[in-house]
Amino acid sequence: MIIETINLTKKYGDLVALNNLHLNIEEGECFGYIGPNGAGKTTTIKILATLLQPTWGEARVCGYTVGYQSRLIRPLIGYVPDFFGAYNDMVVQEYLEFFASAYGITGRQRTRVVGDILDLTDLTYKREAMVDSLSRGMKQRLSIARVLLHDPRLLLLDEPASGLDPRARIEIRELLKELHRMGKTIVISSHILPELADLCSTIGIIERGGLLFHGPVREITRRARMGTRLHVAVVGPADRAARLLEGLEPVRAVQVSDGHLTVELKEEVREYSFIARALIEQRFGIRELREEEINLETAFLRLTRGIVQ
What we know:
- This protein has 11 helices and 14 strands.
- It is of the alpha/beta class and 309 residues long.
- It has 2 domains: 3-215, 3-Layer(aba) Sandwich (Rossmann fold); 226-293, 2-Layer Sandwich (Alpha-Beta Plaits), CATH 3.30.70.100.
- The strands form 3 sheets. A 6-stranded mixed β-sheet has the order 6-7-8-3-9-10, sandwiched between helices. The chain has a 4-stranded antiparallel β-sheet with strand order 2-1-4-5. A 4-stranded antiparallel β-sheet has the order 12-13-11-14, with helices on one face.
- The model has no long low-confidence stretch (mean pLDDT 89).
């Protein structure tokens, strides 16, 4: 277990940011951490990064306890906040060499490591550019490059795609996929839920400082399902088809919009071949009959109430 929290609680005066959080993440996972603003995502990540002390409870990273063994944790992690920070008066290579020196990497090894990281993050052509001249997307890639210099086991990323344009988000996502393939454990918080579904092996949903769900994306979408919803298009009067389907016992409701039907089945109903059979018996042609998929965004909205502290 690379991350384990036990009754992890963080209070700021009367405000409870984390409330007895129990979270386990296995080595090699890419874990997506989602929740409403103020739910406790950043607080969790900062505690795991040894930047905050819990009020009570325990957080263990790579087998070491935050607070008591933080000096042993820091060489094993890489933390990327949602903003870049200072050091704008350096060029990119100088910036990375500075941090490599801070990690104790010197001489030819430092030159080799910086070159390898520039290649991995596709920043080689920017090695002589001033950090201040980089776009936000480039600065985020440079932030990731910085935390890779010492080859950490665990990456903690707090909203790394925040404020990026679509192309920059795709580039960051593909870089993180490559790092995951290389065996890095990744914890990433984000509000861009479709990209998390594509990137992460497991998802955790937090609300009001407590973990609501933790598991594979498919399991979370399964739990969020509230009956099957079908999209139906027929050849013939849509209103008459709607009245026909509304009279079927397994059907909860039918809505008509621009000639298309949205059919909601009762929660226990999973098989829906009777829909096609009923329409065909009444001489309707069927242009479309498909089940609506529940994506991560829909699951998030159904499983949370949007409540913050």
